[in-house]
Amino acid sequence: MIKNERKTVQLPDVSVSFTEGNGKPKLPPIAYQRKMSRFPAGFGRKDLLALQKIQDNIETPEPEEILSDEELFSRLQTIFEAKAEEEGEGLTIDEFKEAMRKTVGRHNTSEEIEVLFMKVDANCDGGVDWEEYVTFNLLEYKEKTIMMEMMREKPFSNEIKEIDSKHRDAIIKILFYPTIRKVGTKGNPIDLKVGKYMTLSKDGTIGVWNLAMKNLKYYNASSHYTNRHTQPWFNDMVAMYNVNMLALTTTDRDICIFDLTGKKFSMRYYVTGFDSCITAMDYWVDLSNMNTSILLFGDQSGSVLSFNFDSALRGGPFGALDGKKNTCKRVSYPEVMRGYYLGVKAQKMPNIHKDWVNKVQYLPDISCFLSTCQDPQTALYFGDFNGKKSQVYFKVNKGVMCFDYSPVLNIIVTGGMDYLLRVWNPYVNNKAIVLLKGHTKPINHVIINASKNQVISIDRGRSLRVYDLRDQTCLQQISGRMIKFDPFSISAVYFNPVKRTTLLAANQIAMMEKREEEEKNADIMSHNKPVVGAIYSRVFGSTVTACQVNIFETIDELYIYIYILIQKKKLDM
Question: If you average pLDDT over residues 543-563, what whole number do you get?
Answer without folding.
Answer: 59
